[in-house]
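seq as requested:
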Amino acid sequence: MKRVLFGAYVLFMSGSLSAQQNPDIDVWAKEYEERIKSRTEECRKKKPYFSEDLRFSKPDYVVFVPEVEPEKVGDMYNDHFQVFETPNGMMFAVWCQASVEGALDQHVAFSRSKDSGKTWEKMRVLAGSKTIAEGIAAKVAIASWAFPLVSKSGRIYILYNQFVPGKVSTNRQHTGLMMGIYSDDDGETWTKPEEISIPRTTNDGADTSVPPEWVVWQKPTRTGKNGTYLVGVSLHVHPTFHSKYRTVTEFIHFDNIDDNPPVKDMIVRWVMTDDKVLHIGVHCEEPSIVKLPDGRLFAVMRTGTGSPCWTISSDDGETWTPPRTLLTRDGGDPIPHPMSPCPIYDWKGNEAASGLYFMMAHNMFDKSSSSPWQNRGPLYLFAGRYHKDAEQPVWFDGPKRFIERESNNSFYTSLTVLDGKTVLWYNDQKFYLLGKVIGENFFDGKADVELYKP
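struct tokens:
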């Protein structure tokens, strides 16, 4: 049995769906329908207690709390939480939502705030099915992992991964077309989806009718040449190449967003592809990028080796150095961490190049285990500082406690500077969508706990 935590309560559900590798949407529908029916009543009974659990992580902002009524909108799973602003100061949130991760109702959710994040409008669905029943009736495929880009004039683009029903794939959540929509009225109305072509590489399968298996998990930042958008991407390679590696890192440049092109005319360049992909061990994925005071870019990725890794670009993200294990500092210890999100952010803002950074990690890895997928327990922040002449240009202090839940701390986060405060936006338990101010106390040089050493 697999434990799935919603709020303070543990619900039990069976292991992998037998339909997981089946492209027939009706097969998925039948199994998920039965699951949701058995869980809905239990969730309703516990709904009044969610508000108490909501305060566990001491959030400063609350963006979304599920209604826990999947027959209306499947909202119990909330992930890939991207908060951003437009030039006029409005705030927006886009995320991946479903009744259960990977369910037929996995969709792109969207909300707005007109008062600096204090209150948020009712969530809207931009792509995918709102409910499993709707997915069955209309055969609307799941839409996942949306991310925003905002032009200098304020046009909001939302790009996302669109599964293609009827195509055999290795993973329906990762395999898909790159689709996009945009809004010129602060998210009030949106264009019809258009496809962006994804170049095929030597790490994709031979069947060209099956899209690549890719995920963009952080917001693109204006760290490319001349301030253009750049983002890292995880590529899940075709099983043919699993003897070499399973996931690798590439990068995407968006070169003409400020020209306000239609989605289909966006200039999207993928770099570090084919034999240039970044890899270390079997897994190298979920890259996050910060800018250094010297103009170089520094990226951190999660791995299956027991520690994150890092890479450097000296040419605005066009090329990157081979990944190396992330240490506390030159000559220091590896930072222990399982296969779990480990983003790095600039404390002064995504493109600030301030020299002050922080990274999230679990500070734990059991080397005796044969699996890198280990318990995602208490989560810590590691304050980082730029060191000009160091081999690893960012050195980290000891870990500071951030969230102390015993498990399920898998945060797909984003960052904004709001009213002069640095806010980390996180999806507590992949359930609540919250924001927390990261204050100067994280940079006082004092560690709450020692680095774990097995």
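The chain has a mean pLDDT of 89.
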